[in-house]
Design a protein that fits this description.
Blueprint (H helix, E strand, L loop, with lengths): L7 E4 L7 E4 L4 E5 L4 H16 L8 H19 L2 H10 L3 H8 L3 H9 L3 H13 L17
Length: about 150
């Protein structure tokens, strides 16, 4: 079975549009102003739309649900659990995690929301035993503290 390739078209897109998958042509369009990391992330995200055969959607709730699913898959693809664990042990906040992982903070949040039950247990145990953080404690600044 062959691998499905996607043609990526780089060009100027409307403001606040990083990219989109055109179901009619099968092309992925990406904004030319994105840096290499953002472009990679956007292409992966749009390839998941293609894989799931997403066409136009005018139902707001369904469109949001599709975006949540695709963002979750993108986060799992871009951030392996091993990399997340390393970052979790080395960083004290989401912005630091994102910099460590070379992604944006939104993708870190999506990955954290996509943790399996086992991954969540491992992070909880590591937080307490490896770096002395109680992940259930609320800190007024919203950061993890040792």
């Amino acid at each position: 079975m062959g691998r499905s390739m996607s043609t990526v078209v780089v060009g100027k897109l409307p403001e606040n549009t990083l990219g989109y998958y055109d179901h009619g042509t099968g092309l992925i369009h990406v904004d030319e102003d994105l840096d290499r990391r953002e472009r990679h992330y956007t292409v992966v995200h749009e390839r998941f739309h293609k894989l799931l055969k997403h066409g136009p959607c005018v139902t707001p709730g369904a469109r949001i649900a599709r975006e949540i699913k695709v963002e979750s898959w993108t986060a799992v693809y871009m951030i392996t659990f091993r990399a997340l664990l390393d970052a979790y042990q080395s960083c004290s906040d989401v912005q630091a995690l994102a910099a460590f992982l070379n992604v944006d903070s939104e993708l870190v949040y999506a990955r954290m929301m996509s943790l399996t039950a086992l991954e969540r247990v491992i992070l909880d145990v590591c937080a307490v035993r490896c770096v002395g953080v109680n992940p259930t404690a609320i800190h007024p600044d919203g950061v993890l503290v040792a």
